[in-house]
Structure formats: C-alpha cells, structure tokens
Amino acid sequence: MNTLFRRSFLPAFSTFRGSCRSFADATINEKIDKIVKNNKVVVFMKGVPDAPRCGFSNAVVQIMRMHAVPYVSHDVLSDENLRQGIKDYSNWPTIPQVFINGEFVGGCDIMLQMHQSGELVEELKKIGIKSALLTAEETKKEKENK
After folding, report:
1. Cα gap 2→26, rounded to integer Å
2. What distances in angstroms separate CA 75 from CA 17, 81, 96, 121, one per listed residue?
C-alpha cells in the first residue's frame, strides 16, 4: 500500500512543489527588480561593504569607495533565494553583480576595466553621480592653472 500511495501521491506533490518553486522564483525576481529599479547603483555581493567575504566583492567595494559612489548593497550569503535569484535575474553566474540605473553592468572584472578606462566616471555622470576621482582631478587641474 505504501508504494501505491507514493505512486499516486508523489506526482501531484512534485507538481505542487514545482509550482511553489515557480512562485518563489517570481517573488524573488519581483523583489530584485524593485531593488534594481529603485536605486541608482546596486551591488549584490558576498558579505557587506564593511566586511566583504570574498576578494571579488572586496575589489568592487574598493572601486566604489575610490569614486565615492553611494550605493545599496545586498549580501547574497545571507539569503540563498537571493543568491540564486540574482544569478537567474541577470543571467550571469558569478557574484558580485553591479547594476547602474536599473541595468546590469557586470561583475568585478567589468568594474575594474571600467574604472581603469575611465568609463565608470562617464557612466556615473550619466546618472548624476560625480566621481570623487573626477573631483580630485579637477582640483588638481585648478591648482595647476593658478
């Protein structure tokens, strides 16, 4: 009887479990979408800015600090649904993930390239954020011109 019960009940249970998973995925996608669209700069990272828990997350935090970028961060290690959800949302397999003005920019490697090339300063300028590096460069030029 136990086998008969499992054969008749488990397919229905699996379908129910699968639909619950889809609902959970939809809910986390909506949550991520709201976070990304309601903030100019968002970093999904391992750890928090004051205590990053991986070198790549730390590198992104350091880049943000150099530019004095105000940003919202979310620790994916504290929420497994968020950790998997952000990977599904962006279709990008690694953490950290940076979003600027609602759009996925990339991870540590992309942020480092953008920082080195000056592209990050330009992207920040488009959304009304003046990089501290630009400010320092302008101050230096002003002093040279005096």
Report:
1. 35
2. 27, 11, 9, 25
77 vs 45: CA distance, rounded Å: 8
Distances (CA, A) of 68 to 94, 121, 139: 24, 11, 16
Least Cα distance to 41 among 86, 71, 73 occurs for 71
Nearest Cα to Cα of residue 77 among 66, 65, 86: 86
Nearest to 119 by CA among 91, 140, 100: 100
Look at the alpha carbons of 84, 89, 95, 97 in this order and tell me if their dihedral is positive or negative.
negative
Judge whether 73 and 42 are in contact, CB under 8 Å.
yes
Summarised one tens digit per residue, pLDDT across range 61-104 is 999 999 999 999 999 999 999 999 999 999 999 999 999 999 99
